[in-house]
Specification:
- The protein is α+β, with helices and mostly antiparallel strands.
- The chain folds into 2 domains: 165 residues, Pnp Oxidase, Chain A (Roll), CATH 2.30.110.10; 30 residues.
- The protein is built from 6 helices and 7 strands.
- It has a 7-stranded antiparallel beta sheet, sandwiched between helices.
- Strand 1 and strand 2 form a beta hairpin.
- The longest helix has 26 residues.
- The chain is elongated and about 80 Å long.
């Protein structure tokens, strides 16, 4: 099993990490349902605990739901920080586009007879990310091609245990929209009043 990645993969990994900040903001603003489809890229936010810091971490990742279980994959295997975190502490939360759950994460063993099919489902649900990241079309790739590309991937199963509600979850920044709308309308009203005053003086 590989424990290192190439320079090109590391560059791609850093690009994804930067893009993840944008995706997390999308969820926090309550916009996750827009464009979040398997045809484009089906994304959730995985909330996990740092194995060293003990702090809460949030990582957007692709996923698929099969038989009421949530599956995702760590493309960089054991080098992925979130994978190492959930192996140390499997208690996680998942932010889906329309719900929020607590759950228990576990790694699907490599000898699981369903592993290849489940991996394919996750890669298909990742939409454009699979061809860009893995370099293959998971819908048409053979089992051998899929196995070769995903040899170092770790497949994770998350069993949802409890629906979550309240503050601190997806949409926690949705208040920005009404506040910004009110501020915009107030600004327009002030500008209109100022313009009328100038017109009366002229």
């Amino acid at each position: 099993m590989a424990n290192t990645i190439s320079q090109s993969d590391e560059t791609l990994r850093q690009m994804f990490k930067t893009f993840n900040h944008f995706l997390l903001l999308v969820f926090r603003l309550g916009l996750a349902k827009y464009g979040n489809q398997p045809e484009t890229s089906q994304i959730m936010v995985l909330v996990h605990t740092g194995r060293k810091s003990g702090l809460q971490r949030r990582t957007p990742i692709n996923y698929a739901i099969v038989d009421d279980e949530i599956y995702c994959t760590a493309a960089f295997g054991h080098l992925a920080d979130w994978h190492r975190n959930i192996m140390a502490n499997p208690d996680v939360e998942v932010w889906l586009k329309d719900s929020w759950w607590a759950g228990i994460a576990e790694e699907v063993p490599e000898d699981d007879p369903r592993r290849s099919d489940l991996m394919r489902e996750v890669l298909i649900a990742s939409g454009f990310a699979a061809p860009a990241f893995a370099g293959l079309n998971p819908k048409t790739a053979s089992d051998d091609e899929l196995a070769q590309v995903s040899a170092d991937y770790r497949l994770i199963r998350i069993h949802p245990t409890e629906a979550r509600t309240g503050p601190g979850g997806p949409g926690d920044l949705a208040w920005v929209w009404p506040v910004s709308t009110i501020a915009l309308l107030a600004g327009m009203f002030i500008c209109k009043c100022s313009r009328k005053k100038r017109e009366r003086r002229s």
